[in-house]
Amino acid sequence: MSYKILQVSVLLLLGLILSSFNLAYVVICEVPLLFFLLAQKKKKNVDPTERAIFITGCDSGFGHFLAKQLDGMGFTVFAACLFPEGDGAQKLRMECSHKLNVIKLDVTLDEDVAKAKEFVESHLPAKGLWGIVNNSGISTWGEVEWKTIQDYQKIADVNLFGSIRTTIAFISLIRKYRGRMVFMSSLYVHISCSLTSAYTLTKRGLTAFCDSLRIEMKKFGVQVSMIEPGNFSPATRIQPQHTAEEVWSKLSEENKSTYKWEYIKEVTELIKQELQNGNANVNEVIEAIVDALTSATPKAHYRVASALEKVLVFLCIHFPAYVTDTIFSFGLRKLPKL
């Protein structure tokens, strides 16, 4: 009996300690945070008048729609396109105001980036360059053994080093006007699944770069944000539509004997279905980028994804690898056995 009383006493004591701790936590941490957030809410969003935004990858996808949106809001827009005479660039010229400027830019070329910066500097409005959106990106898919080092290098040159190259060139202008820097990453930096290693590693590298940059830029009043979209393949068309025949033709004889035609065929069909299941509506992504550029209190990370994708992210972050490996393996269960 006395032992049970002792147990109850200990539990009550722990309860009091925890409740006291919780109360202290609320008083010390939560209350000041609440007042801070309320104070931030009173700050006005950024006025676009006489401010410029530089966007890479405006030929299509997020960059194209963002350029239109920011132009409509009143920003001076520098829309960098890989093909300045292509359909995407021509649409921007026809559908946007005179405040939108189309610039040729291949983010893998130093000379292109230097010329783009020179043009922007000579055409800045009164309040300067407020934001840069590193949006250029390409993708590929396939198992590691099917790829060459050149395949990985090509993706990294655009997605990772292209963004870094552009950032280094324009960082002094953004710092001068205490503006914003936005990077297009991917929700899949948190989800380690097969067939996407080349794309995912570049986005993880970009995330690490941005996290460091964000801390370094705080002392200058520059805000750095990362956008993490889920599957928006129907809207961006970033993922190439390789046929099974194309994939098969690039395999070595050893890989052909290992993976077999039926396996390649089924993987190709799986990727095709996954791309078709993506979100075709980019509005939520564009809203996130605009918020990062104009909000008085922009977020460090914006996750724009379906409920299922967010659940997968939660599992990948909080559960051990064998759990998520099992989940992804289950998703590939219908592929032919090798």
TrEMBL record:
UniProt-listed InterPro entries: NAD(P)-bd_dom_sf, SDR_fam
The Gene Ontology biological process terms listed for this entry are: steroid metabolic process
Alphabetical keyword list? Membrane, Transmembrane, Transmembrane helix
Q: Where are the transmembrane segments?
A: 12-38
An example Gene Ontology molecular-function term: oxidoreductase activity
Family label = Belongs to the short-chain dehydrogenases/reductases (SDR) family.
Q: What is the recorded name of this protein?
A: Zgc:113142
Which organism's genome codes for this protein? Latimeria chalumnae
Q: What is the lineage of its organism?
A: Eukaryota, Metazoa, Chordata, Craniata, Vertebrata
